[in-house]
Specification:
Blueprint lengths: L2 H4 L2 H21 L3 H24 L5 H25 L4 H23 L9 H19 L5 H30 L2
Helix pairs in contact: 2-3, 2-4, 3-4, 3-6, 4-5, 4-6, 5-7, 6-7
Amino acid sequence: MSKKEVFSIPNILCYIRFLLVFAFCYFYWHKQYGYSAVMIILGGISDCLDGQIARRCNMVTELGKIIDPLADKAMQLAIVVALCTHYPQMLILFILFVLKEGFQGICCLIGLKKNKRLNGAKWYGKVATAVFYVVTVILIAFYDIPLWLLHACTLITFIVFMNAFVLYGVTFYRLLKD
């Protein structure tokens, strides 16, 4: 792997996203929720930018294909764990997140063994990520929201995550069947 690939602009944006995870955690644990929400927004923007730049400028790298989803999952995991500390209702999203990501990880490993690969995130995965970021920014920026809004946000996110989980299951089934 060349230095040019390691330090491509999209990959540097992924490295920054990993740093944003730590910044999010720092601000959240120090009860600076506005800054925590800003870290999520910056993470979402960098996620959009790195993919666009990589595709449009022909900077897609094998390293980028690995670190981009890892940076996304690290941010999402940090967010959902943080939210579970304040909103016990979010535990259901944490469980669903772990099941969905674990399932996808296992399917990817099986696919690698069979020399079959999922070509990037699907639209339903991107929608789930976008909804997750919007909802979590609301929950963090407006820390003491009414219970009905918390339940609505949790339900919306659960439905979108479950939809992505099921559709990825179908996608992986089709990809991996012989």
